[in-house]
């Protein structure tokens, strides 16, 4: 589904793991859509610190500290806490209780077949030494989604299997009780940027690969990152025709430059020959400097008052708990666990 398909009746649930500041891949893939969505429907933004611990046990301070960093990124890009509910996952215990019930609706073999989980297990080299919390994360994510009766979950293509498994759990639960309680969700994959490559051109932008450009990057960091960007290794002379496909600079121009016609002309010129890498990198740097400067400035302003950020998170978490508590009560009543 597309952004234009969202209506005022939809409930959005999305969020980020708190293992580092957010980067350009997050911005083009989801953050700028969240800013638009907050004026269109009800939106919950989850700071997924509990989920981050599924493969970061021992890095407690890193996970904790980045709750504040991600919250700063949200505010800096224009997310309004009066319009979107920003909350801390670990402070909503209703989610954990829901996940414990959902684990009875899914088998170990089904969890192991989840393509997203399989890929991430391979990436981390777990083989059979898989943390149980990591393996069972699809049930926890189902709790995150269903607790707010979300109808839409913005995700990258690699996360679609997680939404499919959530809906399997929803259907299985609803079929086991007299009156259906839970709601199925639809995945919304960004039209642009879901797979924004890293500045090295070798993989999608990822904190773990060190090929990112954060939203708080300084002017010099932006300049250096653009200089390092992968272009066309066979474009040795300005006069040589160049390849646009697989060229990271053009991928970023497509994602971020507001002048679509200019980018189109640059591509045609580059493919014909006569346009150097330095020129297209200059266009990209100017674009990114203009994009990130106000974000960086707003972030620095918010960072001066961490107490206000924590107060905002406390308020948002309280709102989230109220909503999740209603869903949990309905789920327990459906199962006959409302004893008194």
- Please report the number of helical segments: 14
Strand content: 5-15%
CATH architectural grouping of the largest domain = 3-Layer(aba) Sandwich
Tell me the count of domains.
2
Q: Characterize the overall form.
A: globular
Helical amount: 40-55%
Report the count of strand segments.
Answer: 5
Text of the CATH class of the largest domain: Alpha Beta
Rounded Rg: 22 Å
Low-confidence stretches: none
Query: CATH topology of the largest domain, which one?
Result: Rossmann fold
What's the story with the biggest beta sheet? Answer: 3 strands, parallel
CATH homologous superfamily title of the largest domain: HUPs
- Rounded to the nearest angstrom, the distance between the terminal CA atoms is 43 Å
Mean pLDDT: 93
GO molecular function: ATP binding; tryptophan-tRNA ligase activity
Organism: Aquitalea palustris
Family: Belongs to the class-I aminoacyl-tRNA synthetase family.
InterPro entries: aa-tRNA-synth_Ic, Rossmann-like_a/b/a_fold, Trp-tRNA-ligase, Trp-tRNA_synthetase
Structural write-up:
By secondary structure, this protein is mainly α. It has two domains: 3-196 and 306-334, Rossmann fold (3-Layer(aba) Sandwich); 216-301, Tyrosyl-Transfer RNA Synthetase (Orthogonal Bundle). Helix content is 54%, strand content 7%. The chain has 14 helices and five strands. The chain has helices at residues 24-37, 49-52, 60-77, 93-102, 108-113, 115-124, 132-135, 137-147, 160-176, 219-228, 248-256, 260-272, 277-303, 306-334, and strands at residues 11-17, 42-48, 84-88, 152-154, 186-188. The strands form two sheets. It has a three-stranded parallel β-sheet. Helix 9 links the parallel strand 4 (152-154) and strand 5. It is globular, with a radius of gyration of 22 Å. 40% of the residues are buried. The mean pLDDT is 93. This is Tryptophan--tRNA ligase. It catalyses: tRNA(Trp) + L-tryptophan + ATP = L-tryptophyl-tRNA(Trp) + AMP + diphosphate + H(+). One of its GO terms (molecular function) is tryptophan-tRNA ligase activity. Its EC number is 6.1.1.2. InterPro entries: aa-tRNA-synth_Ic (IPR002305), Rossmann-like_a/b/a_fold (IPR014729), Trp-tRNA-ligase (IPR002306), Trp-tRNA_synthetase (IPR050203).
């Amino acid at each position: 589904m597309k952004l234009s398909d969202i209506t005022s009746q939809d409930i959005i649930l999305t969020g980020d793991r708190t293992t580092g500041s957010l980067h350009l891949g997050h911005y083009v893939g989801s953050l700028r859509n969240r800013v638009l969505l907050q004026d269109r429907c009800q939106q919950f933004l989850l700071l997924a610190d509990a989920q981050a611990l599924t493969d970061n046990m021992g890095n407690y301070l890193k996970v904790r500290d980045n709750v504040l960093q991600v919250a700063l990124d949200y505010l800096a890009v224009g997310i309004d806490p009066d319009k979107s509910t920003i909350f801390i996952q670990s402070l909503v215990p209703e989610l954990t209780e829901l996940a414990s019930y959902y684990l009875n609706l899914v088998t170990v073999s089904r969890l192991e077949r989840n393509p997203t989980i399989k890929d991430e297990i391979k990436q981390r080299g777990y083989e059979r030494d898989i943390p149980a919390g990591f393996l069972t994360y699809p049930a926890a994510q189902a709790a995150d989604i269903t607790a707010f009766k979300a109808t839409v979950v913005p995700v990258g293509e690699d996360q679609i299997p997680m939404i499919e498994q959530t809906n399997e759990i929803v259907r299985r639960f609803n079929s086991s009780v007299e009156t259906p309680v839970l709601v199925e969700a639809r995945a919304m994959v960004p039209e642009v940027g879901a797979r924004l490559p890293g500045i090295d051109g070798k993989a999608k932008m990822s904190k773990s690969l060190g090929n990112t450009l954060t939203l708080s990057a300084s002017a010099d960091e932006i300049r250096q990152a653009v200089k390092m960007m992968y272009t066309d290794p066979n474009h040795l002379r300005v006069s040589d025709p160049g390849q646009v496909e697989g060229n990271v600079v053009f991928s970023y121009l497509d994602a971020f430059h507001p002048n679509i016609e200019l980018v189109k002309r640059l591509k045609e010129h580059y493919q014909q020959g006569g346009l150097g890498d330095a020129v297209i990198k200059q266009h990209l740097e100017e674009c990114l400097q203009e994009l990130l400067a106000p974000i960086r400035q707003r972030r620095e302003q918010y960072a001066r008052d961490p107490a206000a950020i924590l107060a905002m998170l406390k308020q948002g978490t309280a709102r989230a708990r109220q909503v999740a508590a209603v869903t949990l009560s309905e789920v327990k009543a459906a199962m006959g666990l409302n004893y008194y």
